[in-house]
Amino acid sequence: MKKNILKGFMALSLIVGLGSCKNNNNHDSEAEDAKEVAEATAESMEYVVDTTASSISWIGKKPAGQHTGTIKVEEGTFKANDSIIESGNFTIDMMSIEVTDLEGDDKKNLEAHLMGTVEGKEGDFFNVNEFPEATFEVTGISETDGKTMMEGNLTIKDETKNISFPVSINKTDDGYEISSEEFTIDRTNWNVNYGSKSVFDSLGDNFIYDDITLKLDIKADKKA
Q1: What pLDDT is recorded for position 12?
Q2: What pLDDT does 202 receive?
Q3: Which of 94, 101, 151, 166 is the one with CA 20 to 30 A from 136?
């Protein structure tokens, strides 16, 4: 009897442990207070973000599944000296939120809900009529455990937090290609609280996970 109880307890512990684990392939970016923006040296050259070749992809999850999508980069610049990026910023067009795993009315309805263009649900997610843009400003680039980390202030819905994530930076003949690994942010740090079990305690299984997975692919060309 004792052995059966012990086995049952060990099995339950394993299930709980597995259920609480996050995807080890993702970098969990902890939100911190905003930091001073990086400044470039006088010798640096300016590179302009190619918005047609740049994109941000996202994944949002709930117990019943997940949704995927993209957001467009509206504009941005980086400054670099001797193949080292010293500063940079880009603006995100929140009105370009697109859902890529649905079609037809399901796609349109979810996009409208995320953007907050549905009457009475404006504040559930990103409320683009009031906050049409988000921004990212580089505060530093460093090497940590053999990985290049980009650190910056992310502003969404007028809330600014500092995050960091792994990137690969490729110098090309015309400029730079900056690609991040997949990383997660906790949306509630930017007051995106709809369906959050950590904010509302009466949701049961009808909740949406706080973590949003993001991946950045940014191309910047030398300013003409």
Answers
A1: 34
A2: 87
A3: 101
Q: Are 175 and 219 in contact (CB under 8 A)?
A: yes
What pLDDT score does 23 carry? Answer: 42
- Supply φ then ψ for residue 139, to 5 degrees: -110, -10
Burial of residue 87 (CB within 10 Å: 0-12, 13-18, 19+) is: buried
Q: Which residues of the chain are under the pLDDT cut of 50?
A: 1-24
Question: Which pair of tokens denotes residue 169?
Answer: 């930076």
CA–CA distance, 181 with 50 (Å, rounded to integer): 20
- Please, are residues 98 and 112 in contact by the beta-carbon 8 Å criterion? no
Quickly count: other Cβ atoms within 10 Å of residue 148's Cβ. 16
Prediction pTM value: 0.87
Residue found by looking up tokens 């930017």 in the block = 190
**C-alpha 56, offset from chain centre:** 8
